[in-house]
Known about the structure:
- The structure holds two protein chains of two kinds.
- Chain A has 15 helices and four strands.
- Chain A is α/β, with parallel strands linked by helices.
- Chain A folds into two domains: 7-40 and 179-377, no CATH class; 47-153, abc type-2 transporter like fold (3-Layer(aba) Sandwich), CATH 3.40.1710.
- A four-stranded mixed β-sheet of chain A has the order 2-1-3-4, sandwiched between helices.
- In chain A, helix 8 packs parallel to helix 11 (262-286) and helix 8 (181-211) packs antiparallel against helix 14 (330-344).
- The longest helix of chain B is centred in the last third of the chain and has 16 residues, at 170-185.
- The A-B interface holds A 2-3, 5-7, 9-10, 13-14, 17-18, 211-213, 215-222, 378 and B 53-57, 75, 78-79, 81, 83-88, 91, 93-94, 98, 101-108, 111, 134, 160.
Amino acid sequence: MKEFFAFVKKEFLHIFRDTRTLLVLIGLPTVLIVLFGFAISTEIRNVNVGLFSADADDSVERLMRKIDQSEYFTYVGRFNTEEDVDEAMRRGVIDAAVMFGSGFSSALYSPEGAEVFIAADATNPNNASMEIMYLSGIIAEYFKDDISAIHAAGPQDGSVTASGMLQPNLHMLYNPQLKSSYNFVPGIMGLILMLICSLMTSVSIVREKESGSMEVLLVSPIRPINIVLAKMIPYFVIACVVLVNILLLTIFVLKVPIAGSFFWMILVSVIYIILSLGIGMLVSSLVRTQIIATLICGMIFLVPVMMFSGMLYPIESMPVALQWFAQIIPAKWFIEAIRKIMIEGVPVRYVTVEILIMTAMAVAVFTAAVIKFKDKLD
Amino acid sequence: MESENVIEVVHLTKKFGDFTAVDDISFHVRRGEIFGFLGANGAGKTTAMRMLTGLSFPTSGKGTVAGFDIRTQSELIKKHIGYMSQKFALYGDLTVRDNLELFAGIYGVPRKETDARIDNLLGRLSMSHEKNSRVRDLPQGWKQKLAFSVSIIHKPEIVFLDEPTGGVDPAARRQFWELIYEAVDEGITAFVTTHYMDEAEYCDRISMMVDGRIEALDSPGALKEKFGAASIAEVFDILARGAKRTE
């Protein structure tokens, strides 16, 4: 046992003496969280909107002021012709335009209803569809109020089209403000923890093989399995520190509340950390050089975490073959479980499947790694 | 009763598939001697040494190291031997002291004794002032002396030195050999592989391996007499002429 602790101490020393790597490990999640939280946002902001209206009409001006009040849009002004709108769009002065044909106000109360044109710069299709969705929402809301006000003042002759229009009543569950933080925080956790545990552990083990120190250690009385376990402990500790760091940033900086059980979220994370450590150990028992270990961890484990974990693209919209592939990505299950507990706040019985699958994966990976490791001893 | 021979090997063979790396070797090493294990690269020195240190399992034959069976008691052997390899000399990113404490811990040196042993060891190397320097900042010759001291920090019965003086200048090599003599004076047996033939002259007895077999084994003086050669290098040339394996 004594030799084991001597070895654990050595591993900590390696890490603390290498201040740069340590800073990257602790700093990277912080930078990612801040970047994704504030700079790289999938939400739309500061969209410039122009107006074209064939008639001089007060009500459309009021509408534009309302659009301007929203945090997403800025009203830049009225254009006199449709060509001017085109021109402004091309020059990048506006990103979207709201256009009313002649006789809009009178058509509003006619049985046929009135037409509003919304144009958006679709060079970025995601942004364009979000702009259109938000704009039509604001417009529909506005005319609903406007018409009920007119109704209150004195009802007209019956059929009122705008208020008679089908009003979709949208509820964004679990994430009412549509914050993208809710989506990427579990993803970043999955990515960073995998990075620290699998990549760092395997590189650290393989480094000993490369430098020849493994040979010296194998001749010493320390048992080979203890060498590997001793290597895992510091990375386990670092992973836990990083986990707490991410959670603190999430709660206090991004202001995303933890909806579900804190205890279960930590437990699920620890299972995932152990699973990732096992992957690191397995990789290290298969390869001989640090470069190959880095490549394998990077290509086989980190890139798929980005692609198949549902962090960037929804798994449901992938081809069936890729959906099947996504099922074997450990991070996919982790991210799903964290989303359920952290964002949806469901009781733990709804994440039993994820927990069981991750546990089974951890057992399988460790078994394979131990078998492989013994083979190497000759 | 303690055996006079600390290593005894009988008909030891190691095969990798069709290739016989070590071909039926038998020899013994006496307590307290410096035993030179010579041979060209690829002659099977490293494989033979690995079987003795428990890194590799023999295909056939048997042997004991420090009185323990190399087939069944390798865990016990590991506690009674020291090992220094050609490639590795300590962890460069750790300090001299960290390295010494690590190996003292791994080899089960009692904690109370650790500090005293480290101070004593550094004092003998005149390196006390470098206690807190990182190993990577030390000159190569110092690193090797330190690595040797680390390999005997637990006072083993036998220390295995695998090409310990590779890449060091002749002056540093001579100093290194003085350390080996000191260790032997304290009763440690040294088992040294080298391809510097001048170093072979420092050994009490040497064995010469060619193509997996031990072709000659005696004291340097007796070998020179037997082959009518002026130096060990000449003896080696005579023996190596018959080698079939290329480097």
